[in-house]
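Re: that backbone. Tokens:
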């Protein structure tokens, strides 16, 4: 497992990469929510009321920040996160 601080606009989040056999789990967490790879479940985050944005096809934290958001939960949408933003833009909102 690899963790790293993610610094954006003077705020700090936490990036996490967990290797598995076929694909890694990649996540970046801010104080208001998180950006996740397709390994995790948007529907579960929605049920739990979490502000979450999903990107797909990533293997690293850097990939996650550069990828486009393909899905969001209602709380993330209410914060202004939209499909098509980058993971970096979404994380900036969530910090």
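Recovered sequence:
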């Amino acid at each position: 497992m690899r963790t790293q601080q993610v610094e954006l606009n003077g705020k700090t989040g936490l990036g996490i990469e967990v290797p598995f056999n076929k694909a890694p789990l990649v996540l970046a967490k801010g104080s208001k929510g998180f950006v996740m790879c397709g390994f995790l479940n948007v529907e579960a985050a929605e049920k739990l009321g979490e502000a979450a944005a999903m990107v797909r096809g990533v293997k690293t934290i850097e990939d996650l920040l550069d990828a486009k958001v393909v899905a969001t939960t209602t709380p993330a949408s209410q914060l202004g996160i939209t499909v098509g933003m980058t993971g970096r833009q979404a994380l900036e909102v969530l910090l």
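The mean pLDDT is 97. The helical segments are 42-47, 61-66, 74-78, 87-94.
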